[in-house]
Amino acid sequence: MVVRDLSRFGRSARDLLNNLQALKDSSVTFISIKENIDGSDAYSQFMLTILAAISQLELEIITSRIKENRLARWRDRRIFCGKAPYGYIWNPKEKRIEIEPEQGEIYSIVVKEYLDLARSLNDISLELNAEGIPTRNGGSSKWFSGTLSKILKSADYCGEITVNRFITDVKGKIIGHRSESEHIIFEAPPLITRARWDRLQERLDSANSRSGRPSKME
């Protein structure tokens, strides 16, 4: 087997060794053009292992620099990583958070129906689904009372969107919280006043108390 360089044959030294062993077991000779080396003898395999380790280190350094650069741009508010909260959208040209008109209107309707008309979150979610109102994820994703509760509990809608609050694993699962000094705050057009949002929290807390569930701010 001939490859242009080692990086094409394994993402890490371990991958390379496993792949080389698989080729050896099948009596297949390995040749890397860039490094001008093959895996036909013990010395070649040793050199390939060293070169693979160096290649992996270089890749990790490059990846780290890319992440640092991305984080620096994020902190400077030049980019917005991930999706903006429901009701908002990132304008990359103007480098700012803006209201997404249709979603912003839905947010205001949900707040009014829950806070002013005293409708339940379950009834509101059923109505949104019946009317075919898409969630932030779009597609066949459905609205649930828990989804609405999380949105209504978020203080982002008062005009400051806080990001970089959590530590996540490679799958995106939250495994910890970052200190406030690491938080990044983006200014955004408010969709609700602070006074009205406080009233909203009182209603949510009251509903949780009546249902026997502890109140939890997310």
UniProtKB/TrEMBL annotation:
Which SUPFAM superfamilies does the UniProt entry name for this protein?
A: Resolvase-like (SSF53041)
Resolvase/invertase-type recombinase catalytic domain location is 1-77
UniProt cross-references to Pfam families, sorted A to Z? Recombinase, Resolvase
Mention one GO molecular function.
DNA binding
Check the record and name the Gene3D superfamilies matching this protein.
Putative Large Serine Recombinase, Chain B, Domain 2 (3.90.1750.20), Resolvase, N-terminal catalytic domain (3.40.50.1390)
Taking every annotated instance into account, which residue ranges of this chain make up the domain Recombinase?
85-210
User: Which InterPro entries has this protein been placed in?
Assistant: DNA_bind_recomb_sf, DNA_bind_recombinase_dom, Resolv_N, Resolvase-like_N_sf, SSR_resolvase
Top-level taxon of origin: Bacteria
Alphabetical list of PANTHER family matching this protein: DNA RECOMBINASE-RELATED, DNA-INVERTASE FROM LAMBDOID PROPHAGE
Provide the protein name: Recombinase family protein
Q: What taxonomic ancestry is recorded?
A: Bacteria, Pseudomonadati, Thermodesulfobacteriota, Syntrophobacteria, Syntrophobacterales
